[in-house]
Design goal:
With about 425 residues, the chain is of the alpha/beta class. It has a domain at about 55-95 and about 135-190 and about 265-360: 2-Layer Sandwich (D-Amino Acid Oxidase, Chain A, domain 2). Helix content is about 35%, strand content about 25%. Strands 4, 5, 6, 7, 14, 15, 16, 17 and 18 form a nine-stranded mixed β-sheet that branches. Strands 9-2-1-13-20-19 form a six-stranded mixed β-sheet, covered by helices on one side. Strand 10 and strand 11 (about 230-235) form a beta hairpin. Helix 1 packs parallel to helix 11. This is FAD-binding oxidoreductase. InterPro entries: FAD-dep_OxRdtase (IPR006076), FAD/NAD-bd_sf (IPR036188). Keywords: Oxidoreductase.
Length: about 425
């Protein structure tokens, strides 16, 4: 039986463990913290083939320049002289081109549809994670946003996805319980959503029952190899060897660039969320979605909860959280849902935050490297970790077993910035 060590215990690492142990591998997962509160827990839980537009776009750059020094804005970059941050910023600016949006639409669609298929047809047979496939809505207030959303819908339909533009009457039909101050929405009928806490808890239990060794509070200090073959990792609990290795360490993955001789721009984009009980009919929102001008997300979860989240804060993983950023989320929620008025002081103890691993173009890194024949990299998923988790795990298994991959991985090339 071949042995594999997976570095990172978030959804990408654990999904890889699932497919590999089912394929007969001896699997060990090494996690620097515990498995109970990483970036995979507090996100919006979208399963979204609709995210077919890469993160690095001219619009994001233009708006981001206005926002980047406002610590309450949806997109904030902590000013600091840092080589990795500068390298990432240059890669992001270079990638933010209209031709890249067109080029990457198909691979993002394909990996998104693969993930949705795996969650619906495979994972649901193994355990419950409160999956729902009623779609997602993207709500807008202004004529300018409506114009942009119409273009997004046209692009999605060109890709063959079930996407429609709804007017105010259509939006009200989708959300009959809640007053919405908006003029319309995109309805991504192709999407689903799940409850991340339930997914992660049941996945961990499933892996333990399958014999996967889950090591917590074990930090990887370095990787060692020779002649194109990684032989061992050095950890705070000693050295460990294996036949193959998977790098799925999220926002910490870039710390191994030097050991692996890789140029893989990656930063941690901190996001925040709060999860509340559905305490009145106005909070009984039926669909997950995005508030376009508010730049935040909302998700009904597990039948009796709702989560609001968002922001992208490019900062050091050692920087304390800025709770004032949650004010921006709560204000956007109130602007779109006037009957929902949540005060920051009332929910401070419910604020969650985590670091999304964000690549130089917002596209994941999935694949092998030219130098290391027994290493697979799977990181850089940004906001799409949960959404693409199942597909990425399957692809990692296919790569290690030298099988044909279920989707073309050229757009996710680990060394595309070399």
């Amino acid at each position: 039986m071949s042995k594999v060590i997976i570095i990172g215990g978030g959804i990408i690492g654990l999904s890889s463990a699932k497919y590999l142990v089912e394929a007969g591998w001896d699997v060990t997962v090494v996690e620097k913290n515990d498995y109970l509160d990483n970036c995979s827990y507090g996100n919006a839980g979208f399963v979204c083939p609709s995210h077919y537009i890469q993160l690095a776009t001219p619009g994001v750059v233009k708006q981001g320049i206005k926002w980047m020094f406002d610590s309450k804005s949806p997109f904030y970059i902590q000013p600091r002289l840092n080589k990795d941050l500068i390298q990432w910023g240059l890669a992001f600016l270079k990638s933010a081109k209209h031709e890249n949006i067109e080029k990457h639409g198909i691979p993002l669609r394909d990996i998104g549809l693969l993930a949705k298929h795996e969650y619906e047809k495979v994972w649901q047979k193994d355990f419950d994670f409160a999956y729902d496939d009623k779609g997602m809505i993207e709500i807008f207030k202004t004529a300018a946003a409506k114009h942009e959303c119409a273009e997004t819908v046209a692009f999605g339909q060109k890709l063959g996805l079930d996407v429609v533009l709804e007017d105010k009457a259509g939006l009200d039909r989708l959300e009959p319980n809640t007053e919405v101050d908006a003029i319309g929405a995109i309805h991504y009928r192709c999407d689903g959503h799940l409850y991340p806490q339930k997914l992660m808890a049941h996945l961990i239990e499933y892996l333990k029952n399958k014999g996967v060794q889950l090591l917590s509070h074990t930090e990887v200090l370095g990787l060692h190899g020779k002649q194109g073959h990684i032989t061992e990792i050095e950890t705070t609990k000693g050295k460990m060897s294996a036949d193959a290795f998977v790098l799925a360490a999220g926002s910490w993955s870039a710390s191994f660039n030097k050991d692996l001789n890789l140029k893989m721009p990656l930063v941690g984009g901190r996001g925040y969320s709060i999860t509340l009980p559905v305490s009145n009919s106005q909070m009984n929102i039926q669909h997950p979605g995005i508030l376009v001008e508010g730049r935040c997300a909302f998700t009904p979860m597990d039948g009796d909860k709702i989560r609001f989240g968002g922001t992208m804060e490019i900062t050091s993983v050692d920087t304390p959280p800025r709770l004032n950023r949650v004010e921006g989320i709560l204000k956007a929620v109130h602007d779109f849902f006037p009957q929902i008025n949540i005060k920051l002081d009332d929910v401070k103890d419910k604020i969650w935050y985590g670091f999304r691993p964000t690549s130089g173009d917002g596209m994941p890194y999935i694949g092998k490297t030219k130098k290391w024949e027994n290493l697979v990299v799977a990181t850089g998923h940004s906001q799409l970790g949960i959404s693409l988790g199942s597909a990425t795990g399957l692809l990692v298994k296919e790569l290690l077993q030298r099988e044909s991959t279920s989707v073309d991985l050229s757009a996710f090339d680990v060394e595309r910035f070399a």
